[in-house]
Amino acid sequence: GGYTQSPGGFGSPAGGQAEKKQRSRSQNIVPCTVSQLLAAEQVDETFRICDVEISQVGTGADPREARETIPPHPPLPPQVTVVGIVRHAEKAPTNILYKVDDMTAAPMDVRQWVDTDEAGGENVVIPPGTYVKVAGHLRSFQNKKSLVAFKIMPLENMNEFTTHILEIVNAHMILRKNLMSASKVPQSFSSTGINDMGGYGGGGSLPLNGLTAHQSQVLNLIKSCHVPEGMSLQDLKQQLPSMSMSTIKQAVEFLSSEGHIYSTVDDDHYKSTDAE
C-alpha cells in the first residue's frame, strides 16, 4: 500500500519518495488467470486474491482524459501476467485494445498505450489468433476490470503456456501457505518476492520458471563450468559462501531429479544437461 496514483491509474512521479516506492513494486509480477483477476476483491485502494495484494486500484477518469494532464511516462510497473489467445484487436490513435482469452473466463480487455511519436514495436497490432503473454496491472473503470498492459509478447511455443499455468498453481499454493503461517495477516506480493518474465527485478523465495532463487544460482554456476568433470559441491560452496552446504546439496538434488544436471565422475561433481 501507500503508492500514490493519479485518477487515470498511472503512477504519480511526484518526487523521490514516490519514485522509490514505484521501484520497490517493480519486482512484484504475479502469474494469474483471467478468472482470478475478474474475481479479485477490491479492498480500499488495492485488488486482492486470498488476502494478498496484487495491484493498486486505478479508478476515476478514463486514462485517455488523464493523458492530457499527466506528464508522459510509462504506466505502473507490471503487477500481473496472463497468457492467452488474442480474440480481437482494435487500434486507436493512442492505444490498442485487445480481448485476451485464456479459457478460464470470458475474454478480458487488455489496453496497451502506444507512443504516437515513435514507430516502435509497441505500435504494431498483434493479430487475432496469436497466443501472447501480457504483463500489466489490473484496473477498474465503471465496475469493469481490465488490464493496462506494460508489455505484450507473442509466445515462441506452447511450452510457455504450460509453464505459465504451472507457475500460477505454484505461486498461489506458496502464497496460501505463507498466509496460513503468518496467521492470515494480509500481506503484499512484494514481501514474497514473486518474479517472472526476467528483467523486471530481483527474485525472492518464490520460483522463477519453476526454480527458487537458490536453485537458479546453483544451476547458473554449474552451467558456467566447462571442465569435463563438471563443478564439485566444494566449488559451489566457494562460489556461494552465503549459502549453507545443506542448502546447496538440496538444490543439487532437486536439479538432478528434475533433469537439469547430472553427476559425472562421482556424486560430488555435476554438469548441466544444456552443456555442449
From TrEMBL:
<feature type="domain" description="Replication protein A C-terminal">
    <location>
        <begin position="183"/>
        <end position="268"/>
    </location>
</feature>
<feature type="cross-link" description="Glycyl lysine isopeptide (Lys-Gly) (interchain with G-Cter in ubiquitin)">
    <location>
        <position position="20"/>
    </location>
</feature>
<dbReference type="InterPro" id="IPR014892">
    <property type="entry name" value="RPA_C"/>
</dbReference>
<keyword id="KW-0227">DNA damage</keyword>
<dbReference type="GO" id="GO:0006260">
    <property type="term" value="P:DNA replication"/>
</dbReference>
<keyword id="KW-0238">DNA-binding</keyword>
<protein>
    <recommendedName>
        <fullName>Replication factor A protein 2</fullName>
    </recommendedName>
</protein>
<dbReference type="Pfam" id="PF08784">
    <property type="entry name" value="RPA_C"/>
</dbReference>
<comment type="similarity">
    <text>Belongs to the replication factor A protein 2 family.</text>
</comment>
<dbReference type="GO" id="GO:0003697">
    <property type="term" value="F:single-stranded DNA binding"/>
</dbReference>
<dbReference type="InterPro" id="IPR040260">
    <property type="entry name" value="RFA2-like"/>
</dbReference>
<feature type="cross-link" description="Glycyl lysine isopeptide (Lys-Gly) (interchain with G-Cter in ubiquitin)">
    <location>
        <position position="21"/>
    </location>
</feature>
<keyword id="KW-0597">Phosphoprotein</keyword>
<dbReference type="GO" id="GO:0005662">
    <property type="term" value="C:DNA replication factor A complex"/>
</dbReference>
<dbReference type="GO" id="GO:0035861">
    <property type="term" value="C:site of double-strand break"/>
</dbReference>
<keyword id="KW-0234">DNA repair</keyword>
<feature type="region of interest" description="Disordered">
    <location>
        <begin position="1"/>
        <end position="27"/>
    </location>
</feature>
<dbReference type="InterPro" id="IPR036390">
    <property type="entry name" value="WH_DNA-bd_sf"/>
</dbReference>
<dbReference type="InterPro" id="IPR014646">
    <property type="entry name" value="Rfa2/RPA32"/>
</dbReference>
<feature type="compositionally biased region" description="Gly residues">
    <location>
        <begin position="1"/>
        <end position="14"/>
    </location>
</feature>
<dbReference type="InterPro" id="IPR012340">
    <property type="entry name" value="NA-bd_OB-fold"/>
</dbReference>
<keyword id="KW-0539">Nucleus</keyword>
<keyword id="KW-0233">DNA recombination</keyword>
<dbReference type="GO" id="GO:0000781">
    <property type="term" value="C:chromosome, telomeric region"/>
</dbReference>
<dbReference type="GO" id="GO:0006289">
    <property type="term" value="P:nucleotide-excision repair"/>
</dbReference>
<dbReference type="GO" id="GO:0000724">
    <property type="term" value="P:double-strand break repair via homologous recombination"/>
</dbReference>
<dbReference type="GO" id="GO:0016605">
    <property type="term" value="C:PML body"/>
</dbReference>
<keyword id="KW-0235">DNA replication</keyword>
<dbReference type="InterPro" id="IPR036388">
    <property type="entry name" value="WH-like_DNA-bd_sf"/>
</dbReference>
